[in-house]
Write a structure and sequence with these properties.
By secondary structure, the protein is α/β, with parallel strands linked by helices. The protein folds into three domains: 286 residues, Ribonuclease Z/Hydroxyacylglutathione hydrolase-like (Metallo-beta-lactamase, Chain A); 183 residues, 3-Layer(aba) Sandwich (Rossmann fold), CATH 3.40.50.10890; 52 residues. The chain is 38% helix and 20% strand. It is built from 16 helices and 23 strands. The strands form four sheets. The chain has an eight-stranded mixed β-sheet. Strands 7-8-9-10-11-20-21 form a seven-stranded mixed β-sheet, covered by helices on one side. Strands 14-13-15-12-16-19 form a six-stranded parallel β-sheet, with helices on both faces. Helix 4 runs antiparallel to helix 5 and helix 4 packs antiparallel against helix 8. The radius of gyration is 24 Å and the shape is globular.
């Protein structure tokens, strides 16, 4: 029996894993790669076998980095069942068509340029029609229900406490007179999140795939985060500047609405105008209201009083582009929440363009920013960014509120793993940037004394022998090493740029002539490598 790491290996995005034996092939998650171009290029690659050979797909939750390539999989021949919780199915019904719309819009823009330059046109990964077709394959399941998906395989979805409908998956496989249990953590939530329940625990497993998004750090205290958010709002009201929050449409937006409602109802902050400027987030909020069985006890108590935890008088939802544009023309002293959470697409880019250059504006990041994204460049201290063909100076106040994270941190992950009572447990550390993955792997080994492996993209591991090989969709060990080296070079150049700006800000003497010559040498060397390729 083998497991293949199709994605989510030493990256946060693109989660997808295949477990297979002679008579079955099961995929868990089918996520889209996001961030740097070399990651996004992986979305177009073919699997090493036909999608029609996959017996079933298990989906841990609706986020695009876990679900975003499902329409492509179905388009290329997969016809099996897609198992997910009811809330996840509801969310995918809006998220996958929205993702397809973004694909179509991006390709339309690219092809306009290609035609002008005489280049061939390209096709989207999938269309809105493709997204609609894949939704027919979804089969909703209940939390805690054991279901037989193959004569040898039973699975159970348990609450992961990450977003509405999120789950970790327990899989029992019968083989040669014994039973092997594999657990897929999906995205593991942190305790005491607003609205949704805490993650359930698992006490036994033979193999575990554990996420490591924040495997190398601890989150800010939630109370401190709440207080900091409250002070930013108060200060912004005094200066009449806007607050702009890039936020994931699913989960994070609803948590912020909940937090704002709590503050306003308690009189902790004035009832400032709040705009949810994301059609997807508007639809998602409705889905939250229709899946109250996923809510935690505190939220249920609020509902029992007749008060809405996801509403207040000055909350406004905007759907049309015209309404969105009017916010940039008229809004002052407002709080605008918009997608995408990493600022890679959507209306948030317009709001950043209209607020980043203003010293009285506040930009608040409340979620993970993957390497290579616009959001990551901003929180890493960029002095300016390029938006819609224009350079925009960053003069706004930039804040990062880590306590809003929907992911468990290092401490939370270790505590969760510690519930599993098997000293022979073998752990695959996935869903994290390389530094975070390796740090988490080391912490598990040192603190819990368990065997770990941080697999690479395309690695195939034999679960009987723990020997590995590389998949053959254009990957080799040498390729992944070179890919890793390019990543390090990219990071080094970003660090060089940051150090240079710091020295310029402090008016420190720099040998600009020597620096310019050295940079030209590096550029020439990179150009030579490109030519040789």
């Amino acid at each position: 029996m083998k497991i293949e790491f199709v994605g989510g290996a030493r990256t946060v995005t693109g989660s997808s894993y295949i477990i297979k034996d002679d008579d079955f092939t099961i995929m868990v998650d089918c996520g889209m790669f996001q961030g740097r171009q070399e990651l996004r290029d992986r979305n177009a690659l073919q699997l090493i076998y036909a999608p029609s050979k996959i017996d079933a797909l298990l989906l841990t939750h609706a986020h695009i980095d876990h679900s975003g390539l499902i329409p492509k999989l179905v388009k290329e021949g997969f016809y099996g069942n897609i198992y997910a919780t009811k809330a996840t199915v509801d969310l995918c019904n809006i998220m996958l068509p929205d993702s397809a719309h973004i694909q179509e819009m991006d390709v339309r823009f690219i092809n306009r340029k290609n035609r002008k330059l005489g280049r061939p046109v390209v096709d989207p990964l999938y269309t809105v029609e493709d997204a609609g077709k894949c939704l027919e394959n979804f089969v909703p399941v209940n939390y805690g229900e054991v279901i037989q998906i193959h004569p040898r395989i039973k699975v159970r979805f348990r609450d992961a406490g990450h977003i509405l409908g999120s789950s970790f998956i327990e899989m029992w496989i019968d083989e040669k007179g014994k039973q092997t249990k594999v657990v897929f953590s999906g995205d593991l939530g942190q305790k005491d999140q607003a609205i949704i329940r805490d993650p359930e625990i698992v006490e036994d497993a033979d193999f575990l795939l554990i996420e490591s998004t924040y495997g190398d750090r601890l989150h800010k205290n939630k109370q401190d985060t709440y207080a900091e958010f409250r002070e930013i709002i108060k200060n912004s009201i005094d200066t009449k500047g806007n607050i702009v929050i890039p936020s994931f449409a699913i989960g994070r937006t609803q948590e912020i609405i909940y937090t704002l409602a709590k503050m306003i109802h308690a009189g902790e902050v004035p009832a400032l105008p709040v705009y949810i400027d994301s059609p997807l987030a508007v639809s998602a909020t409705e889905i939250f209201r229709n899946n109250m069985e996923c809510f935690d006890e505190e939220t249920r108590k609020i509902l029992s009083t007749g008060e809405s935890p996801l509403d207040f008088e000055t909350l406004h939802f905007t759907r049309s582009a015209e309404e969105s544009k009017s916010l940039n023309e008229n809004a002052s002293g407002s709080l605008i929440i918009s997608a995408s959470g990493m600022c890679t697409a959507g209306r948030i880019k317009y709001h950043l363009m209209n607020n980043l250059y203003k010293p009285d504006s506040n930009i608040i990041f409340v979620g993970y920013q993957a390497e290579g994204t616009l959001g990551r460049r901003i929180i890493d201290g960029a002095k300016q960014v390029r938006l819609y063909g224009e350079d925009v100076a960053i003069r706004a106040q930039i804040h990062t509120l880590g306590g809003f994270s929907a992911h468990a941190d290092k401490k939370g992950i270790l505590e969760w793993i510690g519930n599993i009572k098997n000293p022979d447990l073998k752990i695959f550390v996935v869903h994290g940037e390389e530094e975070s993955t390796l740090s988490m792997s080391q912490s598990i080994s040192e603190q819990l004394g368990l065997s770990t492996l941080a697999p690479r993209w395309g690695e195939i591991v034999n679960l009987d022998t723990m020997e590995s090989e590389m998949a053959k969709y254009g990957i080799s060990e040498e390729y992944t090493e070179i890919d890793h080296d390019i990543d390090i070079l990219f990071k080094s150049l970003e660090e060089l740029k940051g150090q240079y700006h710091k020295k310029m800000d402090k008016k420190t003497r720099v040998n600009k002539h020597r620096l310019h010559e050295d940079i030209q040498d590096v550029k020439s060397m990179v150009s030579m490598i490109i030519d040789e390729l």
